[in-house]
Design a protein that fits this description.
113 residues; alpha+beta; 4-stranded antiparallel sheet; 4 helices
């Protein structure tokens, strides 16, 4: 199963048109997220990628934030992030992800100056 995203805490995998899997590196547990969560991350990822007005660095950071929040929601289905995925329309969730990514880029710029 190809790795879509990996950092020091999580690995997110998805097979071609197959299920998503999240591996929690701290415990080694492999989580199969709920179908609704898998569908939502697919919709939001598509929305982010089709937005033409985004500069490449913002798209990359948006995808990173999306995968991190998806992994958190999958690992903790009762968390605030899981509730956001469950009860927010894909377009609004994409806006939230994009804003969060822009804020992280801004923080990095401040940190590096």
């Amino acid at each position: 199963m190809p790795v879509i995203y990996e950092d020091r805490l999580f690995v997110v995998r998805q097979s071609w048109l197959g299920p998503w899997r999240v591996v929690d590196k701290s415990t080694g547990a492999t989580i199969a997220p709920e179908l609704r969560l898998q569908e939502q991350v697919g919709y939001v990822w598509f929305i982010l990628r089709k937005r033409r007005r985004m500069v490449p660095v913002l798209l990359l950071w948006s995808e990173k934030v999306l995968m991190q929040t998806f992994a958190l929601a999958a690992i903790s289905p009762v968390s605030e992030m899981a509730q956001r995925f469950a009860h927010t329309a894909p377009e609004q969730l994409a806006d939230f992800i994009q804003i969060e990514a822009a804020e992280r880029i801004e923080l990095l710029d401040l940190w590096n100056t």
